[in-house]
Write a structure and sequence with these properties.
- The chain is mainly α.
- Helices cover 53% and strands 4% of the residues.
- It is globular and about 30 Å long.
């Protein structure tokens, strides 16, 4: 349910931003997602700076939702399997779930 709500909010933020050039990024299970909008929505949900979430994605996976590290970290936010499980991420390759899982982890650390 939360994943659907976040995806809907991200899509609705895209409508006013539509232009000739698209900042929309592909994701494995959520269709086309604007990651800037995703980080704004998830950041607002958890009281986190969306620029922080975007910087983590850039540093960890270079913005690739399908990334897998040599150590086993997966997805956009490079969650390890145990971390993904702990923060209720069932598909770490789904950009929405990955961002929410990372936000929950950061909120937990805070």
């Amino acid at each position: 349910m939360l994943k659907s709500l976040v995806a809907a909010l991200v899509v609705f933020t895209l409508v006013p931003m539509a232009s000739g050039t698209s900042a929309v990024q592909p994701s494995t299970n959520t269709g086309w997602i604007d990651e800037h909008a995703l980080f704004r929505v998830v950041g607002a949900m958890y009281g986190l700076d969306p620029d922080l979430l975007e910087a983590i994605a850039a540093a960890e996976s270079h913005g690739d939702a399908r990334a897998v590290s040599a150590e086993g970290a997966m997805g956009l936010m490079q969650l390890m399997p145990a971390t993904a499980w702990r923060f209720d991420v069932t598909d770490p390759f789904d950009s929405v779930e990955s961002a929410i899982g990372a936000a929950r982890f950061l909120d937990h650390l805070r």
